[in-house]
Amino acid sequence: MSTAIETHQLVKTFGPRSKEPVHAVAGVDLTIDAGDVVAILGPNGAGKTTTIDMILGMTSPTAGSVDVFGMRPRSAVVEGKVGAVLQTGGLLRDITVRETVEVIASQFPHPARVDDVMERAGVVGIASRRVSKCSGGEQQRLRFALALLADPDLLILDEPTAGMDVNARHAFWQAMREETHRTVLFATHYLEEAQSFADRIILMSRGEVIADGPTEEIRALTNVRTITFHTDDPGIAAKIAALPTVTSVSNGTGRITVETSDSDSLLRPILELGGREIEVAAPSLEAAFMALTEEI
Q1: CATH number for the domain harbouring residue 47
Q2: CA 112 → CA 40, 108, 253, distances in Å?
Q3: Which of 193, 219, 245 is the last residue of a domain?
Q4: Residue 276 and residue 132 share a domain
Q5: pTM
Q6: Which of 56, 119, 183, 207 supports an S-S bond with 26, CB 3.0-4.6 Å?
Q7: pLDDT band at 115 (very low <50, low <70, confident <90, very high)
């Protein structure tokens, strides 16, 4: 299998020499194979966007190297191998959505059909609207259309659903599911997006990769499971909280939620105490994210 992205000891440092430098990215090693769908997660300031900027050739590393399909990032972009949906910038406010797509399409020697990319990005209905009159979510969908024009092998998305409401976010990822024949690398603050769409999670904190693996493996890094059940006895919560494997208990009008490191050992006591409609949830990506980033 060919390699889409490879970084070696990638470093980016900001700040004048007279002050303490900020190490936005501190020695990141990544290998992303062609066809992978990968999410980069991390708290604010983790280095996600800076890493993406270096992969796109928008900023140069302070140290280390980055290759995209075996070439320098800017060369890969110029050859049309890379398309990107970024958070801001890149749009002319005083022309329409269709005009924007047509202008950018004219810059490529063999662009995809304008009507096709507009349909896939869900912007046909706003084709005649000026960009300045588009909402933040609509502008993100327009950027998605522009990213598809070169028919790229690699799509890089930095917070692609920023500014979208719930329905628009759902529609965007529905459209993205049609593009998974490409390599996809995306950064997001919405953990449910990473959990449902990515095959692999890269978790960053303070400029370093602190976890990297298949999504299910990252979820399993925390052994906390959640049990919820109904009860007519409000006293059950205190009895369950006293058991040794329980880490927290919350009571919401007859619906008890328990976090535990051993869900199997709790099922019998819950049944014996009159619990019903019991549900056991596997470790979530959110729980793993919280546990791993709090340890740093």
Answers
A1: 3.40.50.300
A2: 28, 9, 55
A3: 219
A4: no
A5: 0.80
A6: 207
A7: very high
